[in-house]
Amino acid sequence: MSQYPHLLSPITSGNVTLNNRAVMGSMHTGLEDRLWHRKKWGAYFARRVEGGVGLIITGGINPNRRAWFYPFSSTMTNVIDVLSHRIVTRAVHEKGGKICMQLLHAGRYSYHPLSQSASSIKSPINPFKPRAMSTRQVKRTIKDFVNAAKLAQKAGYDGVEIMGSEGYLINQFTSPRTNKRTDEYGGSNENRMRFPLEIIEQVRKACGDDFIIIYRLSMLELVGEGSPQDDILELAKASERAGVDLINTGIGWHESRIPTIVTSVPRAAFADVTKKVKDVVTVPVIASNRINTPEVAEDILSQGKADLVSMARPMLADPDFVLKAKEGRRDELNVCIACNQACLDHTFQMKRTTCLVNPQACYETELVYVKTAKAKKIAVIGAGPAGLSCATVAAERGHDVTLFDASDRIGGQFNMAARVPGKEEFWETIKYYDSMLKKYSVTLRLNERVSADDLIGAGFDVVVVATGVTPRTPGILGVDHPKVLSYIDVLRGHAEVGQSVAVIGAGGIGFDVSEFLVQRYETRFEPMQIGEITTPEPLDEWKTEWGVDFDTLEAGGMVASDVKAPARKVYLMQRKDSRVGKNLGKTSGWVHVAMMRKKDVQMVNCCQYDKIDDDGLHITRDGKSQILDVDNVIICAGQVSERSLFDALTDSAKDSALDVHLIGGAELAAELDAKRAIRQGAELASTL
Ligand code: FAD
Ligand code: NAP
Ligand code: SF4
User: Fold this and answer.
1) Residues 570-585: what's their mean pLDDT?
2) What are 55's strand-pairing partners?
3) Other C-beta atoms lying within 10 Å of the C-beta of residue 352
4) What is the DSSP annotation of 105-148?
5) Pocket of ligand 2 (CB under 6 A)
6) Which pLDDT tens digit goes with each residue over 504-534?
7) Counting atoms of ligand 3 from 1, which one is nearest the CA of 340?
8) Known catalytic residues?
9) Mean pLDDT (the chain, rounded)
10) Are 517 and 501 in contact (CB under 8 A)?
């Protein structure tokens, strides 16, 4: 008997049967946009079909050029598109999978001057003001959606998902926030719904009953003047009457200032919203957002909150998600930690998407782990993300690997990251590597600080130094005062921290430490166990803190927030004159900054640190000296590479045949993150 009977059971809707309830949700990867990437894109999907996913939905494809996200993003308008997309559909069908194309018109989120919307209202996150579409243009656009669906069918797609959420064009029509029209497509809810309903009806007519139509419904908009719940439920019922096979969940608009997918959002946070829609329709409904393990998916399905679950990022993180669930290999699951660092942040930087915990994602044809013909004896020093990635990939390829770490556990700095409130998911990555070490029989030697002498003459062919970083100690007068602590003292729980604190350095770690210090709930010092489905912060508290109410009849689902008082007073400081938090991740940094504001953290830029003494931290700002009377000063001033072992080794081994490599923070501390560390480890291991 499977542990996940609901997740793994087949489902039929209309003329369509899917093998299981796991849908790979739509996600822009950057591979959509160029013809020469079609094979890579097909390989990326085919790999997920091999891993057992029931249905795939592509990243958004535009039905005409006005619909572009940005100039020359991917459209479905002509025969060349049809032919090139066949490469993708063939790759999926050869493996026995099913795939739908998402049709998306960006509307006022289009990043070009020809953008259009329901009304001429600029989005707060786009410099381009859209033009209001004429009634003729609306009807033309409906035809373009229908034409794109027909072409998708010709290209071999099993269906389409019509993107009606996240604040894109269709959503701009359905929501009173952006639809101020006075024609038949504006005004009453009946009129605002007309645009998507005509698209659905006409696509159904043009493509027949065997073609899957999914409507991505905006179920909770989380913006002012957003659609009220009654209107949303009405649209759900009307879309069913218009002919959809499945309704998918859309939560929040891109311009919403309430987080919906970052790691601090509790798992399955929005499943109850999906349930409200499920209660009023008979077609299957798909839940989405922060569903990242089979047990979370099973919980939603078994409670009848949804009929299927959509997982986009979790399928990037582990293509074998379904297979591992089916085969009882949950401990081997590489769980998406919802960091956004290599997926959504890349999209916004116009870079190809990949995954922090799985560097092969979207690089299936380029980063390949081929079994080695000649097994080597490899020592990896340092069991942080870089060393773990290198050791496990090398061992997977058939090498004989020994992994050393000076500490009593694997994970390196990730052990501290995981203790930050809202980042508990990071434990999952450590757990995953623990399983991989066992699976590929890596010899693990903990509590061993390795020296060059230990390695030379020990019979290794290759040594990989992944010794990471050490915190930088800034040259501030009084930096050795007893009230000064390092972030390591704080996050390891080794230090008593007073009621007022100055944090020096407002990088990623400065923010994390501040969050830890104002924390809202118990710190988690150990990994969550397999089967635990909730993250530590209770959903109700999270909703109260962000001002979200699933039951309210208020527009957009937003109510006044109520924030718990911070645990202590925190000043978060930097020397630069830029906005504090400016360099954090594009799609997650604003959440950290918003939380700091909610917790009254004073974010201070342009600081000159003069000295630290019994009175506190002395600073100069705008030419004026002041003293922050704080109990502790916590140093988060960046890091420096720990490369003493590498230097000693290259020196001693220069005349030997020992092949020595340096990776991760040990190689370069500047702008080091786990994304670089893990990729570098895997890339090196794939060549050894
Ligand atoms: P490390 O993680 O530093 O590991 C090095 C290992 O080498 C250690 O375990 C050490 O014990 C061992 N070692 C050193 N010398 C020896 C020796 N001579 N013999 C044996 N063992 C030795 N990154 C992100 O991408 N996203 C985040 O959200 C994020 N959040 C973070 C939050 C915090 C609080 C911290 C501290 C870091 C965070 N990071 C984050 C950074 C990320 O953890 C690092 O980039 C990553 O750990 C670097 O990996 P590494 O393997 O190079 O080094
Ligand atoms: P960081 O991002 O480089 O920040 C270091 C901070 O210290 C800066 O604010 C810098 O600002 C300050 N600083 C540097 N030198 C200083 C000096 N000599 N004296 C005083 N202040 C100094 O490094 P980090 O915060 O240590 O993070 C390390 C890495 O972990 C980062 O590269 C990051 O990618 C990763 N990380 C990521 C996340 C995430 O959420 N994605 C979270 C945590 C960590 P000023 O120079 O202006 O003072
Ligand atoms: Fe998940 Fe982070 Fe990977 Fe994106 S980069 S898929 S959020 S683990």
Assistant:
1) 94
2) 23
3) 17
4) --GGG-SSTT-EESSS---TT-SPPPEEPPHHHHHHHHHHHHHH
5) 341, 472, 474, 504-510, 512, 574-576, 585, 636-639, 671-673
6) 999 999 999 999 999 855 655 666 665 565 6
7) 7
8) 168
9) 93
10) yes
User: How much is the pLDDT for 440?
Assistant: 98
Measured from CB, residues less than 6 Å from any atom of ligand 3 are 313, 316-317, 336-343, 355-357
Two tokens, residue 219: 């179920």
Please give the single-letter amino acid code of residue 486: S
Residues 6+ positions from 136 with CB-CB distance below 8 Å: none
Q: How far apart are CA 524 and CA 535, in angstroms?
A: 10
Of all ligands present, the nearest one to the C-alpha of 355 is 3
Determine the 3-state secondary structure of 521 from DSSP: coil
Nearest ligand 3 atom, CA 316: 6
Q: What's the CA-to-centroid distance between 468 and ligand 1, angstroms?
A: 5
**Which ligand has an atom closest to residue 506 CA?**
2
| Token pair of 507 as six digits | 């990088």
Give per-residue pLDDT as tens, 147-190. Answer: 999 999 999 999 999 999 999 999 999 999 999 999 999 999 99
In the chain, the amino acid numbered 575 is R
pLDDT tens for 433-478 read: 999 999 999 999 999 999 998 998 889 999 999 999 999 999 999 9
- Mutational test site, ligand 2, from 356, 606, 636, max ligand atoms within 8 Å of CB: 636
Q: What CA–CA distance (Å, rounded) separates 23 from 212? A: 13
Residues in the chain: 688
Count of alpha carbons within 13 angstroms of residue 220, beta-carbon side: 27
Where does ligand 1 bind, in terms of residues with CB under 6 Å?
339, 341, 381-387, 404-407, 412-414, 416-417, 420, 449-450, 466-469, 491, 508-509, 512, 642, 645, 664-666, 672-675, 677
pLDDT at 536 over 80: no
Smallest CA separation from ligand 1 atom 15, residue: 467
CA 603 to chain centre: 26
* Parallel, antiparallel or unpaired: strands 616-621 and 608-613: antiparallel
Q: Which residue has the tokens 């020994």?
A: 402
**Cα angle 279-245-255, degrees, rounded to a multiple of 5:** 70
How far apart (Å, rounded) are the C-alpha atoms in residues 424 and 414? Answer: 10
Q: How far is the CA of 455 from the centre of ligand 3 (A)?
A: 35
Task: Supply the pTM of this predicted model.
Answer: 0.95
Q: Are 499 and 569 in contact (CB under 8 A)?
A: yes
Which whole number is the average pLDDT over 277-303?
A: 96
CA-nearest residue for atom 20, ligand 2, is 637
Per DSSP, the three-state class of 570 is: strand
Summarised one tens digit per residue, pLDDT across range 342-363 is 999 999 888 999 999 999 999 9
Choose between 533 and 53: higher pLDDT.
53
